[in-house]
Amino acid sequence: MPASKTPDSAGLQNSLDRFIDNDRGNKLPNGEQIFNHPLIGFASAEDPIFGEFRNEAVIGPLFRPPCSWFSEAVTVISYFLPFSEYIRRSNYDNLQTSQEWLHGRFLGEKFNQAVSRFLVSELENSGGKAVVPALEPEYCADYQAFSSNWSERHIAYAAGLGSFGLSRGLITEKGLAGRFGSIITDLRFKASPRKAGNPFQNCPFFADKSCGVCIDRCPSGAIQAHGKDKSACNRYTRIEDHLREMRLRYGYEHSVCGKCQVNVPCEDCIPG
Ligand code: SF4
Ligand code: SF4
What we know:
Strand order of the largest sheet: 1-2-8-3
Bound molecules: iron/sulfur cluster
Number of strands: 10
Strand content: 5-15%
Order of helices and strands: HEHHEHHEEEHEEEHHEEHH
């Protein structure tokens, strides 16, 4: 049975904004802010779109719908944490990934997990229960097939936060440079409308072949007019020289790039 209390979505947004403003985890080592205020969207856990995600052409059969993560699922909450201008601008050139972007990606993901836990506690304070699939032990990704049993960008699409771009990021009204997260709860929130008329509406390339800036931004050639080659992108970020430098300079075991997310028209808004 769903919990009896119906929470206030505006109250949840306000609490999260305050958390973003005040939590020290949202800072780089030099004190600069990692993320700006987030967007939040809601989808019914019974929305048929979650069944469609299991199609090979979308995510694939590995995807698990909300009720398989949490049997009392009523609502799926998705949020987008947009990177601050400081982080975004640091990665504008065509050289190696900036130090600020790297910290934003890795320290930012740690903070993203703190955001999920904070939202769980807010939902529990409202009388509900909540599960974060990305933090569950069963969460898994298949890096050969580039598929996973829970996809934050697809969940964000379901929750009305935006639509996909040629670079395969999700273009929200605050752009695509940032991190996504999601929570499943037994509390009932009103579903957000999916304003995009189709899964690619916010990217002008799909309407009339205009833009395409991310094609030229990509140092590996992974983004082409016909789409994105995820293995080429993956190979580029795993070049041994990059990994060695990540380990030696910053202590990270992984590398990232992110050039297609910044200095592009969809960086921090919907182009148009
Ligand atoms: S840079 Fe242009 S073509 Fe590429 S995803 Fe963004 S809006 Fe679409
Ligand atoms: S992350 Fe880098 S290599 Fe991968 S698609 Fe974007 S620009 Fe290309």
